[in-house]
Specification:
The chain has 160 residues and is mainly beta. The protein has one domain: Neuraminidase (6 Propeller). Helices cover 9% and strands 44% of the residues. The longest helix is centred in the middle third of the chain and has 8 residues.
């Protein structure tokens, strides 16, 4: 096995672009997507493909529509962002706190679809009353199929 890209902040999803032009990697902790171009002689120089996503991406997939689909498992949280930049000792203390006082993900079910230029084509924010925390996504023929880390079921939504 060969390392293609290291130093990632919680790599949590990989998608191969059409024609194997490159591979995209969702970085949950930094709310961004990195791109590694692929050539015949191996991987090229990595770049940031999308920065400042509206939340923490948890999975990424190429849809049947040619778009790149990304789950947004949880919106950004200023408290969590502060904790991520805190010294290791502070993070260790927070990890030992009771679960009831730790920051928790908000109830959301959101996915984005991006074109080849990383422009948002769809920003779908589904009703999260009965199902939430989308952590897996597959688009197929106008329907968006979602999996969740916390739900014992999958969900499906129609594209507008």
């Amino acid at each position: 096995m060969t390392t293609v890209l290291d130093g990632l902040a919680f790599a949590n999803g990989v998608a191969l672009l059409p024609g194997e032009r490159g591979v995209l990697v969702a970085e949950t902790a930094t709310c961004r997507i990195r791109r590694v171009p692929l050539r015949g002689d191996g991987p090229g120089e990595p770049t940031t493909w999308v920065e400042d996503l509206p939340g923490h991406p948890d999975n990424i997939a190429l849809g049947s529509d040619g778009l790149v689909w990304v789950t947004v498992a949880s919106p950004t949280d200023p408290v969590l962002a502060l904790l991520q930049r805190s010294p290791r000792q502070v993070r260790a203390v927070v990890r030992r706190l009771p679960e009831r006082v730790k920051p928790a993900p908000r109830r959301t079910a959101r996915v984005l679809a991006l074109d080849d230029e990383a422009r948002v084509v769809h920003d779908l924010d589904f009703d999260a009353t009965r199902w939430h925390v989308a952590t897996g996504v597959r688009e197929h023929e106008g329907r968006v199929w979602l999996g969740s880390l916390v739900e014992p079921a999958i969900a499906v939504g129609e594209l507008p």
